[in-house]
Design a protein that fits this description.
The complex is a heterodimer of chains A (582) and B (625). Chain A has 582 residues and is α/β, with parallel strands linked by helices. Helix content of chain A is 64%, strand content 10%. By secondary structure, chain B is α/β, with parallel strands linked by helices. In chain B, strands 6-9-10-3-11-12 form a six-stranded mixed sheet. The chains are: A alpha/beta (582), B alpha/beta (625). Chains A and B meet through helix 1, helix 2, helix 4, helix 6 and helix 7 of A and helix 2, helix 3, helix 5, helix 6 and helix 7 of B.
Chain lengths: 582, 625
């Protein structure tokens, strides 16, 4: 956790000021009982009324000064803690935006969201508490002891004896309670998980009549949580009453021994009264500290999770922009042209390569189709072109230049990707299409939607292109989302189109209209289409056949039927299924 | 923000139980206001009813513990007085007069005894309350879960999972925290407040008056601070929501953000929200942070006044020093229960809001009552829709007078564009939703006469959506028939052409599927669901043919497996393949939720309607002949 507090560096002056202010405030709090004891000894016992008034006024001043200090420190500490939260969040988010897909695979999207939001809040909360209490509690404790000593050193020995008793009690309870707190968190998560599974799987559960089984699972998780919570709370039940008991019995002892010292003439009454107040201040601060100890482990876990994310270095970094022709030996290459040279790629931890020495060229003005079974490496191929991952061996070239030598922004600016899973953002329809080109005119947006066969349903929506899309496009059907995601790529007018199995949710007639419109639109750009069905690729200028990561064929439909066994097999299996009963 | 929604700020689910009192930042939160506070609280109390004896004990202990601790300072004051008497005697020159140690010992002995009793009662009260709370909360959760089992699918489709989760977990947790801590604190604070006032009055009505004078001041301060901070707390909540939403969206769509090079805009937007959050966060924090020092200043004001006035009174011989000492202690205790009560009032408000959300869930309309008869063995599988009306929303009818008949052993192919109502058909057949008019029958019996359990056990489903479950592959196949032996499971897998790929997995049948089964390909998942259906051996099948996301080789296997499965069963197939459609005994052409045409392939082609057009545009390309 303390590693994360490096982010506090810019605030060090303010933190120093907070500490100083809290110190002053503690002093003022500690000074009051002394003044009171003076009132008792010098004022009341001697009947000196003006003295009482004078000291009383002074007490008021001291306590006003204390309040001023604590308000000032609260002002600073609020700004520091909130500022810390702001920088931590900012740093995390900016860092995450540099991540490419391997890093996202590693941590998981849900966990990253949690780290950026909840974990930071958790640490920020504790930071505030720390500045408010963790500083003032030890100060009150030590200051109280010093004041007590100054009042009566011998009687202070009593406190010195009692403090370890309190410390040990807190320690003993917390040592048992903290693991229980953790266990409780784990069990709460478990309950959450069981419930979430029940919600997502509700149709399966109902259709297989597994409701009772699920209820049993929930019940045992719930019971488990209740049991642990019971143990924690019973454990904690002992803490406060014990603290109060020790505090009160100490007071009783102070009065008893104080009486003896007063009897012996070593102490006066005012000091005794002040002493009792110091004792309770000390013990109260100890209780405060014990609360801190319960909070810190939680925040430490959060901090560790934040650090873990910050420690991941993005694997994909921008190439040094080398606009010199030396970087692109084939200056003649058109801008959208894609070339793979002996490219191999392994996913981390995978045994077999996802792509194995693949070489091909997809020319501008042509449609190149990629076909192959699940896991044959089609999407991986697109991921390498987008540079979501870096090739292990070989070179991926776009527009004649190695993708690693370009900046990511430069590379991607020329590409229009339509992913397998259509993903839209909250905002209007036109906003989503404009995501492809920020400064697109209304006419451009409309045109893109028309080509993507989306204009029809968009206009049927209550507010047309201004209609709001719910998060994740929840208010659209799968086919509608897919068409908008195509429009988003079209509006860029890129040099290179990448379609990753992007027509799957469209019905046949829409798909054929879309294909026809696309053919006109893409003109001189290079088009790469990934597909599963032969019917979708037959018309392409070139077909690449992938089989378990290797390029098994490269040519037109007719050529491949002649030369490529794998392709023939795919074609036959698909036609056979169509015709076997015909 | 979805799952973490509405966790009251500053209070984390499952957080450490609140210890002690004192106004934390919690006192300043703009507490969520429940709609019907009284009704909700009464209903919540009903959950405590079985524990009323123990609650009475808790109440008694809380009162006892508070009373004993209230008497403490007064006794301590007596002790001080005994000492003062000795000192004064000496000052008056009576040297050698011994202190009244016997008297002092007597007082202190009593005091110690009281404190021990107060400790015991305090502990008993907390200990018992823990049992009551966890018992009541456990019952509440159980009731909610039981309710969830009885709610119709409609409820699940309409509500976000995050919302339901938050009600069952966070809101119940919030209630649990309040019951454990705030309820007893409420009692203790109230008793202490009354006790302290009584004790103060017995010592000196004049001094008590001074303390009371500071009261309105405290209220004014609290109100002023609360008013100013609430605005910022609300702003903070808004910004947090906005920020979480942005983060969630950007991280989920990371690939798109990258592909379109929008990282910069994304970060800029984040920074803008983050900046707004900072502004309201520190203000809210700061303003609420001033409450404590301001209150303690007001407290000190009273303290000084009492010291001064009390001192004057002592010099005039009105009261003793011990009494002043006791009074000061009471005055200090006096403000604590007040701030605590204010705090608790806020917490209870937010608890009532939580409870209300939970009760809302408990009050949701349940499924229509179950039928009573079992389907029994020997179901032949004649399925019929008889002029069925249905709509998800009453004002948007989806099906009107829909009639379909599929005879035992027949195959019905459903054809039509996506979203044409195929899911709806499944929803109605399995009685996830109720028809608005007409009826659905199986072997002539209205499905509403059957129990839902026995109705659903008639169906086997092989659908595109992942109907798999976190657990081992073995458990997944056996999901519909838990008592199946290993041999039966493997036989089913073999028949479904799934055995081979299962055995190539590192753990074979014991491989654990993760939450969304993303460690299997789409096709493999479908083979598993086929195996599951084979094992369950249902009378009627509902199948969804694979679309493009399955590779061709797997698809051949799926087709063979499906054939195997369909033999001799009534099958309703959501069809994409021409061969399936042509083979079907009846083709249902769905359009906009209703059956536009039905008949055999030849009949429909001859008719020259939607089907004929669909057939020409979709399939003619692949037909060589």
């Amino acid at each position: 956790m303390f590693k994360l507090f490096r982010l506090l560096k810019p605030f060090r002056l303010q933190i120093a000021a907070v500490l100083a202010l809290v110190f002053c405030q503690s002093l003022s709090d500690l000074y009051l009982p002394t003044l009171l004891s003076d009132i008792v000894d010098k004022g009341i016992l001697k009947g000196d009324v003006p003295y009482i008034w004078r000291i009383g006024g002074f007490m008021l001043l001291v306590s006003a000064a204390g309040a001023a200090c604590i308000i000032a420190s609260s002002f600073l500490s609020s700004r520091v803690a909130s500022g810390f939260g702001r920088s931590a969040r900012s740093k995390l988010f900016a860092h995450a935006e540099k991540f490419s897909l391997p890093e996202f695979d590693r941590i998981g999207t849900a966990s990253m969201i949690n780290r950026t939001t909840n974990d930071v809040n958790q640490v920020q909360q504790v930071l505030i508490m720390m500045m408010r209490m963790m500083v003032s509690a030890p100060m009150m404790c030590i200051g109280g002891l010093i004041m007590a000593f100054s009042k009566d050193a011998k009687l202070s020995l009593l406190l010195v004896a009692v403090i370890p008793v309190i410390g040990l009690t807190i320690f003993a309870v917390m040592r048992k309670a903290i693991p229980l707190f953790r266990a409780m968190q784990v069990k709460l998560d478990k309950l959450n998980l069981v419930l979430r599974e029940g919600l997502t799987g509700i149709r399966v559960i109902r259709s297989f009549n597994r409701g009772e089984y699920e209820q049993g699972r929930f019940d045992s998780a719930s019971r488990d949580l209740a049991d642990t919570a019971l143990r924690v709370n019973r454990m904690m039940a002992i803490l406060m009453p014990t603290m109060m008991l020790i505090m009160n019995l100490t007071t009783v002892l102070i009065v008893w021994f104080g009486a003896k010292r007063i009897d012996a003439g070593d102490m006066n009454i005012g000091s005794l009264i002040a002493f009792i107040q110091y004792a309770s201040q000390i013990m109260f601060s100890l209780v405060m500290m014990s609360m801190m100890f319960a909070m810190v482990p939680r925040a430490a876990t959060s901090a560790a999770r934040i650090n873990e994310m910050l420690d991941i270095a993005p694997t994909i970094t921008d190439g040094q922009a080398k606009p010199s022709p030396a970087a692109s030996p084939r200056t003649g290459a058109a801008r959208g042209e894609v070339e793979f040279r002996e490219v191999s790629f392994h996913y981390p931890g995978a045994e077999r390569p996802a792509l194995d020495r693949v070489s091909f060229t997809a020319r501008a003005g042509e449609t190149t189709a990629v076909i192959g079974g699940t896991g044959s490496g089609k999407t991986t191929l697109l991921n390498l072109i987008m540079r979501f991952y870096d090739a292990g061996e070989g070179e991926v070239r776009v527009g004649g230049r190695d993708v690693r030598s370009l900046s990511q922004e430069e590379l991607r600016a020329g590409i229009g990707l339509v992913p397998q899973k259509a993903l839209l953002f909250s905002g209007s329809v036109s906003g989503n299409i404009r995501y492809g080109k920020e400064d697109a005119t209304d006419a451009e947006v409309r045109h893109a939607a028309e080509v993507a066969q989306a204009a029809g349903f968009v206009e049927a929506m209550p507010e047309g292109f201004s209609t709001d899309i719910a998060q994740g496009g929840a208010n659209l059907s799968g086919g509608q989302k897919q068409r908008l995601s195509i429009a988003r790529a079209l509006v860029r007018r890129p040099d290179l189109y990448l379609f990753d199995d992007s027509f799957s949710a469209l019905d046949a007639s829409t798909e054929s209209r879309l294909r026809a419109a696309l053919a006109e639109e893409t003109g001189g750009a290079a088009v790469l289409v990934v597909a599963q069905r032969v019917s979708s690729v037959m018309g392409a200028d070139r077909i690449l056949v992938l089989d378990e990561g290797r390029l098994a064929g490269d040519g037109t439909h007719a050529e491949l039927m002649e030369s490529c066994g794998v392709y023939r097999e795919i074609v036959e299996s698909q036609l056979r299924t169509e015709e076997e009963s015909a | 923000m979805s799952e973490e929604r509405r966790t009251p700020p500053g209070r984390h689910p499952g957080a450490i139980p609140r210890m002690g009192g004192g106004p934390g930042p919690g006192a300043m939160m703009p507490g969520e206001k429940p709609k019907e506070f009284k009704k909700t609280m009464l209903r919540l109390l009903r959950f405590l009813k079985p524990y009323r004896l123990r609650l009475l004990l808790v109440l008694a202990s809380a009162i006892a513990a508070s009373v004993f601790s209230i008497v403490g300072p007064k006794l301590l004051g007596h002790g001080t007085d005994i000492i003062v008497k000795g000192v004064v005697a000496r000052m008056n020159g009576a040297a050698g007069v011994p202190f009244d140690y016997a008297g002092l010992l007597h007082v202190l002995g009593w005091l110690a005894g009281l404190y021990v009793l107060s400790f015991l009662f305090g502990y008993v009260q907390q200990y018992l309350m823990a049992g009551v709370t966890q018992g009541a909360v456990y019952r509440l959760r159980k009731e909610v879960d039981d309710k969830l089992q009885r709610l119709p699918l409609q409820f699940y489709d309409a509500k976000s999972h995050g919302d339901i989760l938050s009600r069952v977990v966070n809101d119940v947790d919030n209630i649990s925290g309040t019951l454990q801590q705030s309820l007893t604190q409420l009692i203790t604070s109230a008793v202490t407040l009354v006790g302290v006032i009584v004790m103060m009055l017995t010592i000196s009505p004049l001094l008590t008056l001074i303390v009371f004078v500071t009261l309105p001041l405290s209220f004014l301060v609290t109100k002023a601070v609360a008013k100013r901070s609430q605005k910022h707390f609300a702003g903070q909540q808004r910004s947090i929501g906005e920020l979480n939403g942005h983060v969630e969206e950007m991280f989920t769509g990371h690939r798109i953000v990258k592909a379109f090079g929008r990282e910069k805009e994304s970060v800029e937007r984040f920074e803008a929200i983050n900046g707004k959050l900072y502004q309201s966060a520190w203000r809210a924090q700061f303003i609420s942070g001033t409450l404590m020092p301001l209150m303690s200043f007001v407290g000190n004001l009273g303290y000084v006044l009492i010291s001064v006035v009390g001192g004057l009174m002592v010099t005039r011989g009105g009261v003793s020093i011990g009494d002043i000492q006791a009074f000061i202690q009471y005055a200090r205790q006096f403000t604590m229960p007040i701030t605590q009560l204010a705090n608790i009032a806020n917490i209870i408000q937010s608890t009532a809001a939580s409870a209300e959300r939970v009760f809302e869930l408990l009050d949701e309309q349940e499924e229509e009552p179950d039928g009573t008869s079992e389907a029994g063995r020997g179901i032949r599988g004649n399925v019929a829709f008889e002029s069925v009306d249905f709509g998800y929303k009453p004002e948007v009818p989806l099906m009107k007078g829909l009639s379909i008949e599929v005879k035992s052993g027949q195959t019905a192919a459903i054809v039509g564009p996506t979203g044409a109502g195929k899911t709806t058909l499944v929803n109605l057949l399995l009685r996830f939703y109720e028809v608005d008019g007409g009826k659905i029958t199986i072997d002539g019996r209205d499905i509403r006469q059957l129990t839902r359990g026995s109705l659903r056990s008639l169906f086997g489903m092989v659908l595109q959506d992942t109907w798999l479950y976190k657990g081992t592959i073995r458990d997944n196949i056996a999901y519909g028939r838990t008592e199946a032996t290993d041999a039966e499971i493997e036989d089913a897998a073999r028949a479904a052409h799934a055995d081979f790929f299962i055995r190539t997995l590192p753990e074979g049948y014991e491989t654990v599927l993760n939450e969304d089964a993303s460690n299997l390909s789409q096709g493999q998942k479908q083979l598993l669901t086929i195996a599951r259906a084979l094992l369950a051996d249902p009378a009627i099948l509902i199948l969804d043919e694979a679309t493009s996301s399955v590779d061709t080789r797997t698809e051949v296997q799926i087709r063979h497996a499906m054939k195997e499965l369909m033999r001799g069963r009534t099958s309703i197939v959501i069809a994409h393949r021409l061969s399936t459609i042509r083979d079907a005994d009846v083709i249902l052409v769905m359009d906009k939720g209703s059956v536009a045409e039905q008949g055999t392939h030849e009949e429909l082609i001859a008719r020259g309607g939607i089907y004929a057009e669909l057939y020409r545009s979709q399939f003619s390309g692949n037909e060589a002949s």
